[in-house]
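Lab meeting, action items carried over

1. Structure of the two-component assembly. Owner: GW. Status: complete.
Input record:
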Amino acid sequence: MTDNTRLVRELVVENSAGIHARVSTMLVQKSKEFLSEIILRKGSAIAHSDSMIDLLSLGAAQGEKVTVEATGSDASAAIEAIANLFVNKFYEE
Amino acid sequence: MKFKEFILPDAIRVEIKATDKQGVIREMAESLRDAGGIKKDEFDSIFKAIIKREELGSTGIGRGIAVPHTKHESVEKLVGAVAISRDGVGFDSLDREKVYLFFLIVSPQHQPSEHLRALEHITRQLKDDRFCRFLKDSKTRDEVLALLKEADEDMYGMGK
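Predicted assembly:
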């Protein structure tokens, strides 16, 4: 695996409250565990996963699709970890 | 959701005196109460709920901004207050920076999307450095109101 591995995955926001402040904090903290650059997109809006302001500005609500993109040597583990949070509804429900 | 739909003009404070997190939240909740946004007899309960939410993790979202908030059964409509601190206040933010701009939100119990739309609007505007700076430098309530109006008209942020 090269250092610039780039992986993309489409996820759905499943928790009822959407990507609100506490969920954003969780995403920021999880992202910090990886070297890869992680970006979330909703439509034309882009958020760096290490910025709460970016993440909140997506306004991603329940049922909406978010594309996650991870670039770096640990992209695979990073995207898995982020996807896990989404699938587990950010452990809120 | 536009600022004009939830920020109460009478709950805008350009020079808050508080120097700590609890003090800021108290002053803002008081401004919301005095502006008629929350009921007087629910003040204590709402104040405590906001503090409790902070204990789960700071709402200091970086770049000198915080968005303390809570849901509360006593409000029927999402309401918000704005405060500016000249010297900044320690808020346990993720980036460890002091906070200068505060948006406090109290929302009804079962309307998560409204809450999300308010946060989305606030953060979209605050991503714009000019909006952040102008707001921080505002000296009067009217200046803040004019800036919020401009933001609502898509002069800043990412537009929508």
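2. GW to write a short summary for the group page. Key points so far: Chain B has one domain: 3-152. The helical segments of chain B are 21-34, 43-55, 112-126, 129-136, 141-152.
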